[in-house]
Design goal:
Blueprint: H1 2-29, E1 34-38, E2 46-51, E3 57-66, E4 69-79, E5 84-88, E6 98-104, E7 111-116, H2 118-123, E8 127-132, E9 136-138, E10 143-151, E11 157-165, E12 171-172, E13 177-181, E14 185-195, E15 199-209, E16 214-225, H3 227-236
Parallel strand pairs: 9-16
Antiparallel strand pairs: 1-2, 2-5, 3-4, 3-6, 6-7, 8-10, 10-14, 11-13, 11-15, 12-14, 15-16
């Protein structure tokens, strides 16, 4: 009788300790709390890690993984409850299509997200271009060209414009210019060119591009006449 009671106590104790052990392992190694998401203000270059728990989380490690290779990026000593911190994405991965950002901390579940690189995002951005160019220009007078850019994405788009001469020495072109187009808006940018000589058909390219790809290109042709022709036309009028 005593042996049977002892056996039942041992079974009950084993069950209780088993439950307690499983619970301890769960709370030690599978504790929730870390959240990771793209920065809503700048998803091209930053992600945000947040402590979504009610306790301080210490020794947070941030790493990047590309092609199954893991590289420690930085560490955060601690985050208080509901505290956030921005993580700047490593520019060395800009030439890849995507990579993984992972955050981890002792006794907490790791979190990771797949981040499309800036190259992939910009190459597939929903953006529309409209070119407005004059048909006539005058020698040694600045002529304004316009590019209307409609950014239909939810994030700002950093783009560059450049004019490429098709006839050497016939026109003065500005250097490449950098612009930032806000989300869900259309903006018009102006570019000035100065023809240096008369030409029945002065041609050059307007190019809109990112560091990795050309998004739009337009060949512009205009007739260039001298200032005296312009003055004579005004007097005849």
């Amino acid at each position: 009788m005593l042996e049977q009671r002892r056996a039942r106590v041992m079974k009950a104790g084993s069950f209780i300790f088993g439950v307690l052990g499983i619970s301890l392992v769960y709370f030690l190694f599978f504790n929730m709390g870390l959240e990771l998401f793209p920065d809503p203000d700048n998803s091209l270059t930053r992600v945000v890690v947040r402590n979504d728990s009610q306790h301080r989380i210490r020794e947070i490690s941030v790493s990047f993984m590309v092609n199954q290779e893991k590289k420690e990026a930085q560490s955060i000593s601690f985050l208080d409850p509901q505290q956030e911190q921005s993580i700047f994405l490593d520019p060395q991965y800009a030439s890849t299509d995507s990579f993984v950002v992972q955050v981890s901390a002792p006794f907490h579940l790791s979190k990771q997200i797949v981040v499309a690189s800036e190259k992939a995002i910009l190459e597939n951005a929903n953006v529309q271009f409209t070119f407005v160019t004059p048909s006539i220009a005058y020698v040694n007078q600045s002529t304004q060209l316009q590019v209307k850019v409609c950014n239909n994405e939810l994030y700002s788009l950093p783009l560059q414009t450049q004019l490429v001469a098709l006839e050497e020495g016939s026109v003065t072109l500005p250097p490449a210019q950098e612009w930032s187009f806000p989300p869900l808006e259309c903006e018009v940018v102006s570019i000035l060119v100065t023809p240096l000589e008369e030409s029945p058909d002065l041609s050059f390219k307007i190019r809109v591009f990112t560091p990795s790809t050309v998004l739009a290109e337009r060949v512009v042709s205009m007739q260039v006449i001298s200032n005296s022709s312009n003055t004579g036309a005004d007097q005849n009028a």
